[in-house]
């Protein structure tokens, strides 16, 4: 169904709705909007983070609470540069704006908060810059509790489109920056000719950090909602993870956020690239990327191909192969789309888009995690960008886009 969107100021929504929906529904939506009109939605922004601990590993959890938006340690509340605020004054923060459309399978209206990119602002740490590059915790918008767990070299904020191919294979999709998350040195992705074989000490957990778990649920979470919370609803992690030595060179970005009251989904973009190609192509165990959603409707991986495989060297989306292999790309086998990237001579996917349904008003946890499986040699990387709320809903799925 084609959705028609109309951007309106929060102060205009009530009068607009009175002409289109029953008064009882209108009243409920107005109350919801008024409750969301404050800058932080009752939750403060992230605190400052030490990006270079003595172990070269960071595990930083933001637990800010209600207040005026300033914790004095890395928040963006008052524009004071001395405590980690962005160095650019954004001025008065306006009320949130909304995209209005008919919500699928609902008699009500879908109100998607309008997003104004803020990754042009200068934040004091790479982690803070990374979250804004992803599209989260911009001033005046719904705020998430943020946590990065990984070696500081595994995270890089990219300020330009990746590669030299024309048109760009990996353009920035939202704002002026995007994120690279790697099992090795993330900066290698912009350096053609790098071997992509960095061992990062101190982050080899073996088991997946909670609440992630590799075991599949005993059925279909959509048909049997009671299975949610008992394992991986996608059933895509176990075949790659079980019977191995576990996760090495692990890095994750996780956040917890309240779903706006009148949306039923979110989406983000991801691309996977690996130096494991071609030498390890087709092997049973390779680096993998997991996007874990913890919600009322789904617990498990949400980014996987049509064959039920998580993003890895063996994923169905691996369209760009820049060297021959014995399985599906004999000589000549090249991918000029990877020119100017660190994975020249290796392989990668296109930009992909994952959509996942959520319940309005619930609190969700989302984890973007990449890891070596079985060992900590040879690296892979994902690009991440453009997290946003949607009116799509439904079972998680990933498409090229």
UniProtKB/TrEMBL annotation:
Tell me the superkingdom of the source.
Answer: Bacteria
Task: State the residue spans of region: Disordered.
Answer: 39-105
Q: Where is the composition biased (Low complexity)?
A: 48-65
| Compositional bias segments (type: Acidic residues) | 70-88
Q: What is this protein called?
A: Endo-1,4-beta-xylanase A
The species is: Enhygromyxa salina
